[in-house]
Specification:
By secondary structure, the chain is mainly α. The protein is built from eleven helices and no strands. It is globular, with a radius of gyration of 19 Å.
């Protein structure tokens, strides 16, 4: 389908996306600067991350509601959820794929820099342990929606006006992978989100997919948390390579399919 972009949206959309990412970076940097395992519950400063997320989400909602051109840019076809079941299954498969590439990415990085501890694995374990906290669950669900508005709603839309969809698809996806510390898995996952948004022109579609993925993983952590825990200390973390490889290889066909669709522009 041909999508018409307003002349004023491009730079405004990019600016909003960059501002939101900057605010998020500051908030989470401050959190991790002062955090310890006890703070992954309903205590300071973790509970304020929820408030900050809510505030940023409110700002986004206010801007969109009060700007008619942005409403049309972000959700021109709000009822279009084509191939919903297929895309949910693809999203689930890609989420599992990202788990494998996440493990491999940080082990390779740790081996290259002779790291004794993988801090990303510690963060992962803290997240798994805290899955039962209603505050953390709400925070991660809201965060999924916010990220969708940032990457698909503002950055993808804005860059598409400047450099076209195919280039902006690659640029935003690579940045997504870099931002979340998983170049391979994160990039492919965002290619998928970009594609379903581009085809439907419905910002709520990729938003709903990411929310469902968050809920599925939170439930998985609650049911069998030991499966998702990762050994973070050398040399124990070397044993996680097998887990990462198995997950990545088994789910690789889904990732290849998504990349192929992105290349063809389907």
């Amino acid at each position: 389908m041909t999508i018409q972009y307003s002349k004023t949206f491009s730079k405004r959309g990019i600016l909003i996306g960059v501002c939101l990412l900057t605010a998020e970076y500051i908030a989470y940097t401050l959190f991790y600067l002062y955090a310890n395992p006890d703070l992954w519950e309903n205590q300071m400063p973790h509970k304020y991350i929820l408030y900050i997320t809510l505030t940023m989400g409110t700002v986004v909602a206010f801007i969109v509601v009060n700007k008619e051109d942005m409403q049309k840019e972000l959700a021109d076809s709000i009822n279009n959820f084509s191939d919903f079941t297929t895309n949910i299954l693809l999203g689930l498969g890609l989420s599992v794929f990202c788990t494998g590439t996440f493990i491999l990415h940080y082990i390779i990085k740790a081996r290259l820099f002779n790291s004794a501890v993988i801090s990303a694995f510690i963060d992962n374990n803290l997240y798994v342990y805290s899955a039962s906290s209603w505050l953390n669950a709400i925070n991660h669900i809201l965060y999924s929606i916010l990220v969708t508005f940032i990457f698909q709603g503002f950055l993808l839309n804005g860059l598409t006006k400047e450099i076209g969809f195919k280039k902006s698809n690659v640029v935003t996806s690579l940045f997504y992978g870099f931002w979340f510390g998983d170049i391979l898995g994160g990039t492919i996952y965002n290619l998928f989100l970009n594609q379903i948004y581009w085809k439907t022109k419905n910002i709520f579609y990729p938003g709903l997919v990411t929310v469902i993925m968050s809920i599925v993983f939170i439930m998985a952590y609650l049911i069998k948390e030991e499966i998702w825990l990762l050994k973070a200390d050398f040399p124990d973390y070397n044993g996680e390579i097998i887990k990462g490889l198995l997950i990545t290889i088994v789910v690789a066909p889904i990732a290849i399919k998504v990349v192929g669709q992105a290349i063809k522009g389907e």
